[in-house]
Amino acid sequence: MSSSVTIDHEKGRDSLNMVRGGTSDVAGTAYMLKYLSLIALTAQNAMVILVMRHVRTRGGEMFMATSAVVMSEVLKFSSCLLIIFYQQGSMRRWLHHLHENIILQPGDCLKVSVPSLVYTLQNNLLYIALSNLDAATFQVTYQLKILTTAIFSVIMLRKSLSSIQWVSLVILFMGISIVQMQPENSGQSQTGREQRPLLGLFAVFISCLMSGFAGVYFEKILKGTKQSVWLRNVQLGVLGSVIGMITMEIKEGEKLRELGFFYGYDSLVWLVIILQSLGGLLVAVVVKYADNILKGFAASLAIVVSCIVSVFFFDFKMSFQFMLGASFVMVSIYLYGKYVPQPTAVKKSDDVQNGKVRAI
Questions:
Q1: How far apart are CA 202 and CA 25, in angstroms?
Q2: Residue 359, strand partner residues
Q3: pLDDT tens-digit series, residues 202-227
Q4: For helices 2-57 and 267-289, what crossing angle results, to 10°?
Q5: Which end of the chain is more exposed for a tag (fewer CB within 10 A), N or C?
Q6: Where are the alpha helices (DSSP H) in 58-105?
Q7: What CA–CA distance (Å, rounded) separates 83 from 150?
Q8: Quick check: pTM over 0.85?
Q9: What is the dihedral angle through the alpha carbons of 231, 235, 241, 242, rounded to the nearest 10 degrees?
Q10: CA-CA distance, 262 to 71, in Å (whole number)?
Q11: CB-based contact 237:77 (threshold 8 Å)
Q12: How far apart are CA 243 and CA 266, in angstroms?
C-alpha cells in the first residue's frame, strides 16, 4: 500500500516537473523572441535610414527610387506568401486559402487598395526626404507620425487618449520644433549633392500624415475582418507593386526604358530594399511578442544610434538645440507608450446572471 502511494507520488512529482519545465521553456522562448525582435526592430529602424541616406547622397549612378519602392513591395508580399505557405502546410491548402481570401473577394481587396496607394506614395516621399535631410534630423522629425496617428485614431477609431498621452504629444511637437530651429548648418553633413532642407521637411510632414492615416485605416481593416496580418500584407504588397509601377511609368517612364529597371543598383541599394521589406514583418512580430512601451524604447534607441553614426560617418554636428529637441521626442515616445488608457471597466449586473456581461 505504502509502496504504491510512493510510486504515485513520484509519478505526480515527475509530471509536475515536466509541466513546470515545459512552461518555463515556453516562457523563456517568448522572452527571447520579445527582446530579439526589439533589438532587430531597433537595428532596422536605424540602419534603413542611415543606408538610405548614404545611397541617396553619394556620387555615381543614381538608382530610381520608384523602382526600389516596387522591389520592396515585391519582396514584402513574397515573404508573406512563404509564411502563409508554411502555416497552411501544403501547396493545395495554400492555393485554396489564397483563392478563397483574395480571388473570391475583390471588394475586400479594393478596401486594401486605399492604404496600399498611400504607403506607396509615402515610401517615394521618404527617398525625397532623405535626399534633402540628414539622417538624424529625419529620424527625429519623422516621429511626428506618432501625433498624426493619434489624431487619426481619435477621429476614425474613436480611441481615447489619457491626459498624459496628450501631454506627450505636446512634448513631441515641441521637441520636433526645437530640432528644426537648430543653428543653420549645424546639422548639415557634407555630401556631393545639392540639398533642399525645406523640400525634405515638407516631404517628411506629408509622409507623417500618410503614415498616420494609412496605419489607422489598416488597423481598422484588420480588426473588422478575419484575415491574418500576413494575408493583408500580401494584398498590400501586390497592389503596392502595381501602383508603384504605374507611378514609376508616370514619373520616370522615359528614363526607365533608356537605362533599365535596375540601373544604379548595387549591394547597398539591395540592402535598403531588404531592410524596408523587413520592417513590416518585424513590426508584426514586435506587436505579438512585445508591447507599445518597449516598441517606444526601440524607436528612441534608433534615434540615438542614428545620431551617433551620423556624427562619425556623415560629418553631422549636433547642436544643443538638436540634443534638447531629440530628448523631448524620446521622452514623449516613452510617455505615450506607458500611459495607455485602461480597458473599459466591467461590473456585475443582472446581465451577468443571465450569462451576459455589459461594459460600462
A1: 49
A2: 346
A3: 999 999 999 889 888 887 887 777 77
A4: 140
A5: N
A6: 65-88, 91-98
A7: 31
A8: no
A9: 160
A10: 10
A11: yes
A12: 24
